[in-house]
């Protein structure tokens, strides 16, 4: 579903942020990306959605090359859900309207269909009774669940997450992870930047470890947690586990 092939990226002529990154995420697979701060995880995931350009290599989603100038990027992005650290809901819109906006504007869904879909998804993330509230009236964990529901409303073919729980108070982390675990078990294709190794252990198929812009390790979950091959990954794991 996601093919990343020999990607190099420079933020400036003297600063190479990604070096020869190659990996893939098969349909229905859950791949967790971890690694030290500044190692290029966010940059890589943004390249997947063409939110950042890259200078060498190729990335394709469902066979469509994101770095082909002929690709309709807004259309492609509408098919790939993205959830960031900060939930970025529209503050002036009620929760249900947050869920309807892109369904109507981008997919051209009729309002009543969008509302029905939005309510189904709010129910799925346990927030149906909050549909008429504004984002500021919800906790951080609830807002992040709304952000996930909003992404799902677009019927994405894959979901990208960039540290979706790292801005949350500890007691709210599990409610967001639970939603993500359900999604993974339902077969969603997911690429998830996170340091929540409990999540990785539960649902990841593979774990990628990045350091200094390189994919240092790309292993089946049990191999990764059993014994990472590289010193760098071992050191990283010993610090966070
Ligand atoms: P991570 O998500 O693993 O913490 P990032 O992808 O955010 O890493 O950043 C990788 C490196 O690129 C860091 O050194 C960061 O400071 C730098 N960086 C990130 N975004 C930009 C940008 N827009 N312009 C220049 N440098 C950036
Ligand atoms: Mg990051």
From TrEMBL:
Top-rank taxon: Bacteria
InterPro entries for this protein: AAA+_ATPase, ABC_ATPase_HisP-typ, ABC_transporter-like_ATP-bd, ABC_transporter-like_CS, MetN_ABC_transporter-like, P-loop_NTPase
Compartment(s) where it occurs, according to its Swiss-Prot or TrEMBL record: Cell membrane
A Pfam entry, by short name: ABC_tran
Keyword Membrane found: yes
Protein name as it appears in the record: ATP-binding cassette domain-containing protein
GO molecular-function terms, A-Z: ABC-type amino acid transporter activity; ATP binding; ATP hydrolysis activity
């Amino acid at each position: 579903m996601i093919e990343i092939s020999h990607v190099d990226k420079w933020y400036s002529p003297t600063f190479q942020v990604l070096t020869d990154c190659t990996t893939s995420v098969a349909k229905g697979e859950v791949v967790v990306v971890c690694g030290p701060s500044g190692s290029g995880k966010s940059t890589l995931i943004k390249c997947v959605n063409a939110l950042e350009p890259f200078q060498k290599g190729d990335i394709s989603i469902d066979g469509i090359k994101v770095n082909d100038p002929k690709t309709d990027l807004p259309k492609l992005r509408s098919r790939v859900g993205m959830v960031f650290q900060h939930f970025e809901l529209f503050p002036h819109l009620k929760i249900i309207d947050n869920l309807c906006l892109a369904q109507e504007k981008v997919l051209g869904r009729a309002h009543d269909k969008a509302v029905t879909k939005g309510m189904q998804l709010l129910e799925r993330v346990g927030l149906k009774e909050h549909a008429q509230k504004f984002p500021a009236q919800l906790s951080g964990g609830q807002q992040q669940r709304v952000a996930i529901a909003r992404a799902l409303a677009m019927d994405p073919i894959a979901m990208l997450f960039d540290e979706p729980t790292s801005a949350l108070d500890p007691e709210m982390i599990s409610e967001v992870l639970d939603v993500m675990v359900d999604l993974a078990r339902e077969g969603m294709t997911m690429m998830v930047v996170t340091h929540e190794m409990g999540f990785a252990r539960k649902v990841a198929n593979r774990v990628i470890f990045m350091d200094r812009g390189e994919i240092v390790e790309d292993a089946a979950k049990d191999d990764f947690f059993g014994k990472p091959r590289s010193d760098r990954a071992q050191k990283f794991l010993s610090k966070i586990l």
